[in-house]
Write a structure and sequence with these properties.
By secondary structure, the chain is mainly alpha-helical. It contains twelve helices and no strands.
Length: about 325
């Protein structure tokens, strides 16, 4: 009788083991399919961009050298010529807006992360984190209208009313500030996760040596989490470079080659929106210019992501 029960138990174990292997195989297949799908989508995006971009540069009106070094962007001109296709004003406008956003978001986001990680109680953290998530979930169109209805009037009051400087209604400063507000949650959340991953023993050792909480946060925890913090900065700036609607509404559509944030500029994404909303015929030079600008934006964000990955590999700390 005991031998029979033992045989049944072994049989049940074998059935359970076989069933577990089937479930594991199914789960592994689903994950593998998801990874392959991601790769295929990426390849599809690159192919779609390249095909139209190559057609754009194959036109006699376009010169690759002029495109990369030219300072005049007038692709919608009635008489297109290589001098009208200089991408630098759009790149400059994009970097100007992203730079203003970084000047606001990096210190505020890092300060928020330090507070949440080292100073806030668990109860307070449970209140602040959802608020940050709500801030990240606001549609970018809403941010754009917030910029022109709230931020721009303040800028005009300060710079034009008090300092006597000319401020255009659509300007890079307003767009940069609102994009900075948009990327604060990303910097704060990723940086805080990196700081909370630092072992408690490092903090306790610093406290045992007589360090204050501020010194522990700045001189121990922040350097230990540096790779994650830098990666958060780079990812957030990549997000700022690729922002579309808020920048299109707040910064204007004037492709100026300028470093003055009080002037109207046009970013890469804003130009894509402008032409997409127009009547550009498929296969025309106007339509293909969208893909050339999109490829430029793709390369810029790809390089930023590569830099982020290199920083993570070089400065990553592994704790056991």
């Amino acid at each position: 009788m005991q031998a029979k029960k033992s045989g049944q138990s072994e049989h049940s174990k074998l059935l359970l083991s076989e069933d577990s292997r089937r479930r594991e195989g199914l789960i592994a297949f689903i994950f593998k399919a998801a990874a392959v799908l991601t790769i295929l989508v990426t390849i599809g995006i690159i192919v779609s961009l390249l095909s139209e971009t190559i057609g754009f540069f194959a036109r006699p009106e376009v010169s690759l050298w002029k495109f990369l070094t030219g300072t005049r962007w007038q692709p919608l001109s009635s008489k297109p010529s290589p001098e009208n296709f200089g991408i630098l004003p759009l790149v400059g406008g994009t970097l100007l807006v992203a730079g203003v956003a970084a000047l606001l978001a990096v210190p505020v986001g890092l300060g928020t992360a330090i507070f949440l990680s080292e100073y806030a109680t668990e109860k307070l953290r449970k209140i602040i984190k959802p608020v940050l998530e709500i801030l990240a979930g606001v549609p970018s169109v809403v941010y754009g209208f917030f910029a022109i209805s709230f931020i721009t009037p303040i800028i005009k009051t300060v710079f034009e009313g008090w300092l006597g400087l000319k401020v255009m209604y659509f300007n890079a400063l307003s767009a940069g500030l609102v994009v900075g507000i948009m990327i604060i949650p990303m910097i704060a959340s990723v940086s805080e996760d990196a700081m909370r991953a630092v072992p408690r023993s490092l903090r306790e050792g610093a406290f045992a040596l007589g360090a204050t909480r501020f010194e522990v946060a700045i001189k121990v925890v922040t350097p230990a989490a540096l790779s994650g913090i830098v990666a958060a900065f780079i990812l957030a700036i990549s997000r700022a470079i690729g922002e579309t609607m808020a920048v299109s509404i707040a910064a204007g559509s004037t492709p100026n080659m300028t470093l003055n944030p009080l002037k109207s500029v046009q970013t890469l994404t804003a130009f894509i929106v402008q032409v997409s909303f127009g009547d550009a015929a498929a296969g025309s030079i106007n339509s293909q210019s969208i893909y050339a600008v999109g490829m430029t934006l793709f390369v810029m964000t790809f390089v930023m992501n590569l830099i982020s990955d290199l920083v993570l590999r070089k400065f990553r700390e592994v704790y056991e």
